[in-house]
Each structure stands twice: as C-alpha cells, then as structure tokens.
Amino acid sequence: MLSAGLVLSACGSAAEDSGSDSSGPWSFVDGSGETVKLDEIPKRIIAHAGEAAALMSFGIRPVGIYGDESVKTDPNLKDLDLDGIEILGEEWGVIDVEKAAELDPDLIVADWWPAEKAHGGFEEGVEEKSLKLAELAPVVGATQGESILSLAQGYEKLAESLGADVDDPELAADKNAFEEALSRFKEVVASKPELTVLAVSPSDDLLYVANPEYAPELLDFQEWGLKVINPDSPDKGFPYWENLSWENADKYQPDLLMIDSRQFDSTLAQAEKHPTWQTIRAAKADAIIQWPAFWLHTYGDYAQALEILADDLEKADENIGD
Amino acid sequence: MPTVTTAVRSGKTALARRSVVVTAVLGVVAFAAFVLSMMVGSVWLGAGEVLGSLFRVTVDRGTDFIVLDLRLPQATSALTVGFALGVSGTLFQQLLRNPLAAPDFVGVSSGASVAAVAGIVVYGAGGLAVPAMAVVGALVSAVLMYVLAFRDGLSGYRFILVGIGVSAFMIGVVGYLLTRADLHDARQAMHWLIGSVGQAGPTELRVLMVVLVALVPVAMLLQRQLRALELGDDLARGLGTRVEWARFALIALPVVLIGLATAVAGPIQFVALVAGPVAARLLRPAPGGVLAAGFTGAAVLLMADMVARHVLPTELPTGVVTGAVGAPYLLWLLATANREGVGG
Amino acid sequence: MSTTGTVSVPVRRRAPVLGTGLAVLLVALAAVAFLSVSLGSRSISLADVLRALSDMTVTSTDGSVTLEMRVPRTLLGILVGAALGVSGAVLQGVTRNPLADPGIMGINAGAAAFVVLAITVLGLRGISAYIWFAFLGAAVATLLVYAVASLGREGATPVKLALAGVAVTAGLTSVTTGIVMTDVDALNELRFWQVGSLAGRYAPILFGVAPFLGLGLVAALACGRSLNGLALGEDTARALGLNLARTRLLLFAVVAVLCGAATAACGPIVFVGLVVPHIARVLCGPDYRWILPYSLLLSPIALLLADIAGRVLGSPGELQVGVVLGVAGAPCFVALVRYGRMAEL
C-alpha cells in the first residue's frame, strides 16, 4: 500500500543513459510487448521453476525460485544443483513474498501467458499476497503459447542481455544437440506420412483430448510434420481440451496415443479402469507414448525429449487407427 | 425506599461499569491478536517494529513492506470479518432467543456464497459486483427462511431447521456451479468453499470496512430495541418501539454484514455462533453487547487464522480451523443445554 | 375395545392392496432401470441396447458402454438407493425421530473422514481395502451424534439430532479438508466423495460393495417387527419382550454397514434417506414391515431418476446425482419441517 517506494523504478529513470559502462543501463522487451528498463544489469534474480532452469543452462544463477510443485518432483528442475538458492514456493498460487523481500531482488523472471495476460505466478486465482511479489522488482519473461522453441530462444536472448556468453562452446553444445535431434525427428516423421497422434489426459470422470492450438510443443510437432489430431469441438470456456465422456472415448482413432510424461503410470492406470479405454484401438494395441507436456525451457531438455520421441515414432505402426 | 433505589442504581452502575470494562478488555485482546498476527511469519518482527510501521513512527522499507503490504491486509481482513460475524451472530441469537440461531449454519452465509460464486463463475463478475451479489444472496435466503419458517409467529427452532434445509439447498447449488465452472483446480474450489481470510481482495475488504463503520453504531442502537422486543410485542409497542420496523432492521443488518463478510473470506463457519455466547459469558451478569461480541469474533478469527497459517505443517484455509474448533463447541452446547437452551 | 377392531380390520384388508403396490413399484423400478441403461452421453439405439442386453457379450463399443458402464452403474444405483432409503427408515424408527437421515446425521461425513484417514495415514488404496474404515466411520458418527443428542432431559429431539449432525459433519469435514489439502494423492481419491455420484463406477466397485449392501438390506428387512415394537415406546417394547439395548445396537450396526458401503461407493448422497421413508409412510401407514420394503423400492427409483436427470440436464457432461438430490430434496425437507409432524415445533 504505502510502501510502493520499494518498487525499483523500472520506468522512471530510463531517460538517463550512462552509455559505455558494461553494467548498465539494461533493457529487455517482455513477452507482453512492454520494454523494461533498469539503470544497471540486474544481478539478483528470482525466477519461476522452468525459467530458472533456462537461465541456469546459460550459467546465470537466480537467488530464489518459486514453482508450482515440489522442486524435488518438478521435471524442469531435474538434476539441477539448487544449493544456496532460496525456495519461495512449491505450490501454484502461493509464494512466500516475505522471504522474497529479504532476498532484495532486482528482477523477477516468469513466462508471459498471453491468454491470461499475466506472468506465471500472477494469474487470476492466486493468493492475493503472492501478487505483491511484483512490487519487489520488474517482471519479465518470454511468451508462452506459440512454440517451445521460441521460448528457449527467448531465454537465450534474456540470458545474453544479463551478461551470459551464449556463444561459449560449452553452452552452444546444447543448441547443437537440439539441432541434431530436430533434424532426426523431422526425418522419422517424414518416413511415416500416415501416422496420426492424439494427446490425451484421462481422468476419473472424463477423457480430455488436448487441443494443439494451446499446447506449444504440439504446435511445434505439427510444424515439423507430425500429424497431431486437432479435436473438433474443444470446450468453449476452457479451450485447452475437448472433454469426452468415457462413453464416447472412441471418438478419435489415432495410430498413437500420447499421455503426459509426468504422471505417465498413474494416469495410464486411471485410464485402464474405464472399460471403453480399450475401444480406442491404439490403447488396445498398447501404442501409447510419453508426451513431454510440461513447458520445456532449455535446448538441452528439448533435445532429450525429441530424441525419445523420435525413437518412439520410429517404432510406431501407422496402420492402427484407420 | 431511598436505600433501595440507591442500591438498584448502584447495582446498575456497577453492571454498566463491568460492561464497559469487559468490552474494553476484549477490545484490547482483539487489538493484541491483530498486532500479534502481524508479528509472525517467515520473518519474525517485534511488537515495536509492527506498531512503529503501522503508525508511521519508524520508517524502514523492508519492515514496512512486510507489515503494511503483506500482513496488514490479511490481518485487517480477519479483524473486520471476525467483527462482522460476531456482531451479526449475536443479533440473530438475541432476536431469536436461541444460542444456536447463528447465521453461519442457518442458510444465510451459504446464500451469500451461492450468489458470489454464481457472480464469479457465470457472469465473470469482479470488483464491487461480488460483494453486492453476496449481500443480495444473503438477503434472499434470509427472506426465504423467514417466509418458510413463519407460521403464527417466528419460532427459533423452526427457523433453525428450515435454515439447515435452505443451507443444504444452497450448498447443492454451489456444488452445481462449481462443476460447471472452469475452476479446474479442485484445491482452489475447496479453498473458497471452506472460507479463507487470505483470499480477500482489496475492493471487497474496503466495502466491508466502510459498511462496518457505518452499521456498528446502528447495531448498538438496535440493541435497545432488542431489549424492548424481549418483553413481548405489545409491551414493546407500549414502550414506543415500532415493532415491525425494529424486527426488520434486526434481521437486515446482520444479514448485510454476513453477506459482505462472506464476499471477503468465503463461508467461515462457527465464528458467528461462538462469539456472542462467549462474550455474554464474560460480561455476566451485565447483558451481552454488540461491541463485545464483535471484539470476541475478531479475536477468535485472528487467532484461528494464525493457527491455520503458522502452527500446522501446511498453510490451511481459516475455515478448517474454525470448523475443527467450533464443531466440538456446538456439540458441547447441545450436550449441556438445559431446557430453555435447547428444547425440541 | 373398538379401536383394536377398527385398526386390525383395515390392515388385514389392506395387505393385498399394499402387496399390489409393491408389485407396481417393482415394475416401475424395472422401467426406470431400463431407462437408465438406455440413456447416456453416447446415443445408442434401443435395438442396440436390447441386443447387448440379450447377448451379454461385448462385441462393440456400444456393447461395452451398455454392459460394462451403464449396467454396473444402474445396479449400483439400485443397491445404494435401497441402502439409503432403508437405513433412513431404520434410523427414523430407532431414534423415533422424523428428521433422522444418514446425510443430516453426519454418517456419510464420518465414513468419508475415516476413508481419507485410511488413505493418508495407512496408505490404503482401492475400495476393498478401505471399505472397513467407511463402516467404522459411519458407526462412530452415528453413535456420536445420537449420544450427544440424547444428553439432557428431553432426549434426542429432532432439533438436537439435526444440530448434532450439522456439528459433526462440519467438524469431520474440516478434518477431512485439512488432511486432503496437504496430500495431493488423497485429494485425487477424495474427488470421489466430495459430491455423491454414480459416474465412473464400474464392476469392481459394484462387486466390492454388493455383498455388504445385500447383507445389510436383508438384515434390515428382518427388523420390521422390532421397529414396530420400538415405535410403541420403550415400556411397551420391553413388555413385548424386546431387549432394547441389543435391538438398538443391532439396528445401528445395520445402518452403519449400509451407509458406510453406500458412501464408500458413491460419496455423500443426502435427502433420499430422509424423504423416501416419509413417502412410504404416507403410502402404507405406520407398520415398519411395509415401510421397509416400500423404502427399499422407492429409494432406488428416486436415485435413478435423479441420476438420469443429472445426465440429461448436465449434457454434454453430467451433473452428479448428489447435487441433483441436494437441490431437489431440500424443498421436501423444508416442507416436512413446515407441514409434517415437525409443524408443532
């Protein structure tokens, strides 16, 4: 309320240009389209989980991380050394802003979600208190929703502006691995022109069919030639999915089913409880593969995911569905 | 003769003094809980730091941010919601002459929830529309209960039973609305249904504060009418009370407060039920007062919220704690009630 | 003298009428059950439904939907409905209280709370593992509510019973929510109990609870005479040779098994157990030997109709039967309070 003065003057002092000094000024075009300017290159960064992983892949360590789940289970943070980084939240919508204030951050990094017009962690429905995080420092991030590749590129650009040497051979190795994985993926897809894929999320009451328009990695796959089926009547209020009642589970007959890789086994077990799961021919033939449905943020992670997918697609039978 | 009148008069002044002192003590307790709730958290602060920041005596950016920006809104929300619940609870209980007639488990707050949830989910309402709808919802369900329960007069028990039915009905409707909603997060839906001080938005909170400041003096004035009504309609009329008007005001005022409190924090149970009787017990033999019940409600809710946030391993919605504490109290009330307390 | 004559003669004369009534209800139940099997979000022609029912083997998706989804759902609806109605009648008889109902008395909340504890604390999964905890929770809640309400001079009055039920429900719900909010696995499993529903329940769940429900129903039906005895008041019942304590305990145990199993399978479903026995009483008079079978048939009809309504109204999704009954049953409850035997309150 009264102490809005704590907010670092993001826009106020932009006019002053100190020029040659490599420590500033700093500016970045946020996913929202707005340009954020600071007098100095921000050093103390608080980042959302996946975004933190992206920055760390370029050698930039945040001082604090907040995630939507436990940092131990978050796939984006897998195998990362988080020693010395303060964990500010492990549940969607709940951020310990008191701890964050103690860290005295210069910048907060979180994806921009165009559909919700908010940065990750500041969406509608989060705790009122969590929103105050934005008063500690300006928030920037790459845009979510169109492509995982552009997300990785966006953080490459951000890391560069923060002083990372993105052309360092060690860092460039990840990017090369990604390029190689991508060309192999395209090759495999081209060799199976008839193959159709459906991304689903089975639950107790409904079978959710993913709408690629709202899943950036599925949009990428489509662009690279894979025939991911677009559901014909997504839910009007929540167009991320088409909701099929289990009685209508056989509406689409793809050659291959994709299930969220995060809870693959338990989700599959959930699906198998429903008798009509077997009426999807791909399910009956056990043509089910892992769908990397969490927003990958780094070239390295994306390269890995594409390699696994290419292996799966190579083995796939393109005549199961029709 | 003169000795008797003096005795009565001095008895009266003694009672009045007791009432003022106890109410003042309750006010201090509520304020202490208010300050205490701003001391605890990830960062512990001293009472001096909190007070200094609160009254702008000391200026420290870090402390000010934590106290004024982070903790004050939630503490204010607990204070005002608790006060509103306490005031409306005690008015209902006194009007219906039954300690069980609390607006939180007869259907008033569930009516407010239905309207607020419907506003958010169906019409995408925001800002001032939500508290407005909650008040309308509370009023509609109160009128509904009054009409359904009125039969040659208003019996407290019939009112309570009808209220339980109306409440079940409203909860069914909320369930329906939530299944139709895009709230894919079951946790979030549950949070709202249980009631949580932390979910308060600034607009709703401001409305509740303004209304509280305006209505509490009215409630204190109405308390006199209540005493008159207790003597029976005819006698009250003889004493110059406009009976129908007084009864209408005595129902409308708590209903408006409950509606707004629900819009701020969701349907928090049992605070309205507990505050009045606890205050009355502390004041005894002086008669129960609106202010005392309000302070008690505020202190109870502030403490429940502190327990919900800090004592338990995970942060929980406030309503979980008030429910877990209030339910045994209600059972105890039922078990120990004598004939005039809970007949059948 | 004359009273015994006027009472006994019409009862004897009404036996065939009441028997015919039962037969009519049985036919109605069969019709509603058939409706429940033929309706759903997938449109399947009547001919295909009949073919699936006569073949009893799954050859197509239509057959799978009919036989593996709708038939178990319908059978479960019949069993659970019957269990709730009959346990409501038994509860009203044993407490001599017209407002007694498994939902209002917090019995469902007790079952749900114990199931959640079993899931989180003991790590049990699957209905066959935690159904015993549902029984235990139902029994604990029943006894707690009844005991609290019975304290005091005037005993378990309707108001006290209802209020004790509200209090126990609120307290247990708080405990359940508190646990669930800290445990995501439990939250997923609890979605099953949040609102009563028949959706997504297939053969394994049906077979899991059917023996308990069947046994409980048979036991309850055999209790008509004891309930009639209790209805006459404690002294008369004792004079008739009834062991009051043992009879009450037995009846409460039956209720706990019926409600526990029903809740474990479908979650909390309110008002069926309250309203249906009153309708049964209007139809066949105060004799529990008739009230029980009437409730047995009327409740599943009500439950299945509400379930069908939920599927039609909620299309393309569906509305849980617990929600439909909550909305439809509350006016019945209010009417009962206002015009029924509660009016003298």
From TrEMBL, chain A:
Its main location: other. The keyword Zinc does not apply. It holds the Pfam family Peripla_BP_2. InterPro entries: ABC_transptr_periplasmic_BD, Bact_iron-sidero_bind. The keyword Cell inner membrane does not apply. Keywords: Signal, Transport. Residues 43-321 form the Fe/B12 periplasmic-binding domain. It comes from the Bacteria. It is found in: Cell envelope. One of its GO terms (cellular component) is outer membrane-bounded periplasmic space. GO terms for biological process: iron coordination entity transport. Belongs to the bacterial solute-binding protein 8 family. This is Fe/B12 periplasmic-binding domain-containing protein. It comes from Actinophytocola xanthii.
TrEMBL record, chain B:
The chain crosses the membrane at residues 20-45, 75-93, 105-126, 132-150, 157-178, 205-224, 245-266, 286-304, 316-335. GO terms for cellular component: plasma membrane. Keywords: Cell membrane, Membrane, Transmembrane, Transmembrane helix, Transport. CDD domains: TM_ABC_iron-siderophores_like (cd06550). Gene3D superfamilies: ABC transporter involved in vitamin B12 uptake, BtuC. GO terms for molecular function: transmembrane transporter activity. It is a multi-pass membrane protein. Belongs to the binding-protein-dependent transport system permease family. FecCD subfamily. This is Iron ABC transporter permease. It comes from Actinophytocola xanthii.
TrEMBL record, chain C:
GO terms for molecular function: transmembrane transporter activity. GO terms for cellular component: plasma membrane. It is a multi-pass membrane protein. Keywords: Cell membrane, Membrane, Transmembrane, Transmembrane helix, Transport. GO terms for biological process: siderophore-iron import into cell. The chain crosses the membrane at residues 71-91, 103-124, 130-149, 161-182, 202-228, 249-276, 288-309, 321-340. It is found in: Cell membrane. It comes from the Bacteria. CDD domains: TM_ABC_iron-siderophores_like. This is Iron ABC transporter permease.
